[in-house]
Specification:
Elements (H helix, E strand, L loop, with lengths): L1 H25 L1 H22 L13 E4 L5 H12 L3 E6 L2 H14 L3 E6 L5 H15 L4 E4 L9 H6 L10 H29 L2 E5 L12 H23 L5 E7 L5 H7 L5 H5 L5 H13 L4 E4 L2 H6 L6 H10 L4
Parallel strand pairs: 1-2, 1-4, 2-3, 4-5, 5-6, 6-7
Amino acid sequence: MSRLVWGGLGVLFATVGFGVYWSTMQMMSWLVWGSIGVLLGAAGLGVYWSRDGFDPESIRGATVVITGCSSGIGEEMTYQYARLGAKILITARRENRLKEVVAKAKSLGAQEAHYVAGDMGKAEDCERTIQTAKEKFGRLDYLVLNHAGSSLGSVDERAAKLQTWDQDLDMDFYADFVDINLISYVRLASLALPLLKESSGHIVVMGSLGGKITFPYFSYMTTAKFGLDGFFGALRVELMKTKQNVSVSYVVPGFIRTAGAEEMVKKLPGGEKMLETAAPVKETAYTIIRGGATRTREIYVPSYTWVISRIRMFPGWLQDYLILNVFSP
């Protein structure tokens, strides 16, 4: 009898499922907006239940290495860590900018502020960064991996890569981009882990919404960011399995209104529309600092990125529809 009952229920559910599929194909817009409504409601509940009890005093005296700090989110995180009384070591390629950022960080209240001018795509500069942190601080509480870069210098050169892949055979650019935006993150984390294990420290990784779902025009970035999510997700569970008290927080930012991002996105079709939903840099930096301190597994900023990332739960055909018609420029 039980097999008959469950078999009947299976047939019934399958029939209903096919019926829903075909009917929703004819009512796509209702399904899309209904799904978005459900996700927004879920996001609201998530925000309500995610009150984390962040204590700003926990940052005072903490030692922090932040990469990619000459501008944008990295620069703003430097200032906010400084206001909280941290000891800071920052990196970027432009030494003149690093000097300015360090001077301002000291004026804002950093207990210490130092810099390493270097290219994180080079192994020797990664090694020098962690060695300097060890020499200056003797310990490391936070490793904030935020740098980005490529062999393309100008905004116009970078914007030219924001296109459909279409058999682009420039593998040198691709390899360089992945080395700077993926391999160097792995290298820095590997070098810093002995110090972080001693302090029960924190790794904060600047990922991307493009590391959760795929968008047109960003294939090279998606490659690197999916790699970050995969590696640091594996590292997180390995640290848990071996009972190492080092947290890994993966940041999933949407479009953040930095000067560089704003200049580049204007060159995309529909770029002006993206600017309307851009999150402010100060709010973004604070959210990341808070999430790292409270050992948050994934940090979504602004909150709508959590909603968008949930479309992975939908059937493939619906994911494609949403990406192509709602969430991409």
